[in-house]
Amino acid sequence: TIALIAASVDDIADDEGWAFLGDVGNMIIKKKPDFDPRNFGFLKLTPLIKSLKSYFDIDERQTTSATIKHVYIKTKKKIYTGKKKKEYIS
After folding, report:
1. Are the C-beta atoms of 72 and 18 separated by less than 8 Å?
2. What is the pLDDT of residue 86?
3. CA distance 3 to 20
4. Given this model, what pLDDT does residue 81 score?
5. How far apart are CA 72 and CA 19, in angstroms?
6. CA torsion, ordered 81, 56, 90, 84, to nearest 10 deg
7. Which DSSP symbol is given to 66?
8. What is the three-class DSSP state of 8?
9. In this structure, are strands 69-75 and 19-20 parallel, antiparallel, or unpaired?
10. CB 2: neighbour CB atoms within 10 A?
């Protein structure tokens, strides 16, 4: 699961390594349609990612609405992505 999330972040991250969590969720579903955070004890993807804070940095960015924040994540450790050449992302 961590490798799937990390690979998805890597696929869509900006130049600084940040990826919008909504887009990460969409990428995960494209790669593994049966992915569901509830299988890991979480109702949504955000709490699952927050539980993995030793692997991912989280940045909650304020929007023009006081009640809405956009969540961005970035990998903080090298994580094996499972690709053929044993690629790691940092």
Report:
1. yes
2. 47
3. 17
4. 56
5. 5
6. 0
7. T
8. helix
9. antiparallel
10. 15
Q: Determine the Cα–Cα distance for residues 35 and 23; give it in Å rounded to an integer.
A: 14
- The 10s digit of each residue's pLDDT in 65-75 is 888 889 999 99
Q: Is the Cβ–Cβ distance between 30 and 12 less than 8 Å?
A: no
Q: How far apart are the first and last CA of the chain?
A: 16
Signed CA dihedral, 62, 64, 69, 70: sign only: negative
- Taking the model in full, what pTM does it have? 0.80
Please write the tens of the pLDDT for every residue from 32-51. 999 999 999 999 999 999 99
Q: Structure tokens of 32?
A: 């593994």
Average pLDDT of the chain, as a whole number: 87
> Which tops the pLDDT comparison, 86 or 47?
47
- b/e string for 27-63 if b means 16 or more Cβ within 10 A? bbeeeeeebebeeeeeeebbebbeebeebbeeeeeee
